[in-house]
Structure formats: structure tokens, C-alpha cells
Amino acid sequence: MPAQTPRFSRRAGRIKISATKLMPMLAAEVGGCVSLGQGVPSFATPGFVADAVCDALRRDPAAGKYSLQPGLPALRRAVAGLFAREKGLTADPDSEILISVGAMEALLAAMLVLVDEGDEVIVPAPYYPSHVEQVLLSGGRPVFAPLRPDFSLDPGAVARAVTEKTRAVIITSPHNPTGAVFAEADLRAVAEIAVAHDLTVICDDTYDSLSYDAPATSLAMFPELRERMVAVGSFSKRFALTGWRVGYAFAPRPIMDQMLKVHDCAAICAPMPGQIAALAALTGPQDVFAGFAAALSARRDLACRRLDALSGHLSYVRPAGAFYIMARYRGDAPPMDMAVRLIREAHVITIPGDAFGPGGEQSLRLSFGADEAELTEAFDRLDRFFGK
């Protein structure tokens, strides 16, 4: 019999690969590109973290096996301590903390247990594309709440987005893709909206340590949200462990019990070497990680100086956190066309702004996660491109 075309699920048809992954793939075909694209900090895994993993793999046979399904007990206790110190959130490490395969798995598990077919999730826009794809994969519908022109959070837009179908709101601050750090008053207003309308808050704190002008406020700090919140964090950005794929989440036990079922069928447990690395990073010397944040702050200043020199071609809002800038360019070329031109003609990777939804039109997302030499080379190439 002739081969038949596979029948794919509707859920797979709802989602797509993000432009943050596609642009480096295109650049690899061109060759010789420098990157202002994907959000990866340049720092290597600290030596004491690598040593801890190597030592464990050599001396402890369990280091290469499964951990308990929710994660290593010592790591869950350390994460609970982190929540208590930095957010004032008391969490039971045995029943309210999950160690996940990166923050992404924890976010997806939360979405899959909170969102049913036809439910709505409020997403501030511009948005992190994977948040939207996860809503769609869960069968839900993302409803966008535009940020203000300066990329600050607009509680009024969140309130206007609420309907009888709204199930949750997802907030990330410091924000990807804009680098905005949302004001405490605006976050408190969103918390009040969530309580008033019986919504669950998904708090994505991936960049919480990368706030350069003042400490970032997290929705996880608001006690009134404790029983209606999933708070997700990542070891990738703060501890430069992107490739180790370890994240974590807090949720009250009724939510966490459901998330653990998803985690079990998707991953069983986070990789043991990654968990060992995360524990070493969280419990070891912290000065190296403070140095990472200081270096990224200096890179932000470098990127802003270079953008100021390109003010005839690019405009931007100075970011207060993360390592992203949304730069608006002159002209009417679609963002994908502009990003492709920069790859082919300037050999610089950027991400088209409309990949981040409403508010990203005529814009490019630039990352300053690269080291200063690569940043300088990238902006030198942009100078030549726009100076033609």
C-alpha cells in the first residue's frame, strides 16, 4: 500500500518554532555572523560548579542515575531558602517545590494543569513567544494586554483583558523582550485584579537577579497570591547554566500535585548532573554571580552608547533589567525582512520584533549577553550597514 501522510494533532498545528531559534539557524547557513540575537550570557560554567559535578560523577554512582521525581531534596531545600531570603515566600520543600528541566518545563507543566480548551490567559505584549506557544499547546487562547509605550506594565490593560473565560495571567519581570522592570505599584494592581477575578498568577522570574538600577519586585512577594500562584525560576541566566537545563518552581500543594503528574510523564526528573551543578551554584560562593550581573550592567551601558550613536537610524527605551533592548528602526520594511538583511549584509544576528507580538512592530530585539568584544564587533558592523 502507498505510504499515507501522517495525521498530526490540532495542538501541534497551533504552535510554531520561535524566531529566536530560526534566526541563528539562518545565520549558520550564511556563516561569519556575530550575535545580538538569542538570550545566552557569555559566561562559562564557574570552575567550582564544574568541579562539584565531576567529583560527584567520579565518587557517587547515584550522580548518573534518576533523582527523586520532584528533585534532589537538598536542592529543593536550597530553593525554598532562596524563596524565603529574596521574596519572603515560605515554601515546603517536600510538597511545594519542583526541580524541572529548565524553567520552560515548569512553565509548561503549570500551563497544562491550569488551562483547558477555550480558557484564556492574559499575556502582556510584547511577550516572550514561548509563553504564547504554551498557552496554545494547552488549548487556551492568549489575550494580549499591551504594555505602555515605555514598556511599563499597564494594569488597566490587564483589567480590560479579563473575561469570564480568563483563567490566568502570566508576568515576567525583568521582562523579555524589552528589558523593562515592572514597578511595584503596577504589579500590586495586577495582584488585586487576580484576587478580585479569582485568577491564577504565573510568575516567570527567570531574570529576577538581573535588575541593574534597583532590585526587582516579584509577584511572588505578595502574600495574597500565595494560594493562587506558580512562581518559576531558572538557573540558566543567573548562574550561567543554560546548557545544564535546570529550573525550579513553587506552587501550593493542590497545584503542585497536578504539576508533578505532568513532570512525571514528560521528564521523570531533571538531569542529575544539572541538579548537582545547580546545588553547587546556589550553595557555593556567590561573588562570581554578582560579577556576572555587574558585567551585564556594563554591557548594557556599552550597547546603549552605541545605539545613541545610531540615533538617526534606531531608537530605543533604555532597559532596566535582563539583557535585551527593543530597538525601533526607521523605514517600513517588515521586521523579518530587516533581520534577514542584517544577517546577509551585515552578518549580525538580531530577532525581528514582531515575533514578540503587538508592540514589536518596526523593531528588532537586541541581546547584550555576548562579551564586550563581540558586542563591539556587532555594533561596528551595524555602523557600517546603516552608514551605507
Automatic annotation (TrEMBL):
Q: Name one GO biological process term.
A: amino acid metabolic process
Q: Does the keyword Ribonucleoprotein apply?
A: no
**So which cofactors does this thing need?**
pyridoxal 5'-phosphate
UniProt keywords (A-Z) are:
Aminotransferase, Pyridoxal phosphate, Transferase
Among InterPro entries, the record links this protein to: Aminotransferase_I/II_large, AspAT/PAT-like, NHTrfase_class1_PyrdxlP-BS, PyrdxlP-dep_Trfase, PyrdxlP-dep_Trfase_major, PyrdxlP-dep_Trfase_small
Q: Name one GO molecular function term.
A: pyridoxal phosphate binding
Q: Which residues form the Aminotransferase class I/classII large domain?
A: 33-382
The EC code for this enzyme is 2.6.1.-
The entry's family comment says:
Belongs to the class-I pyridoxal-phosphate-dependent aminotransferase family.
Q: Does the keyword Transferase apply?
A: yes
The entry's protein name is Aminotransferase
Q: What class of enzyme is it?
A: transferase
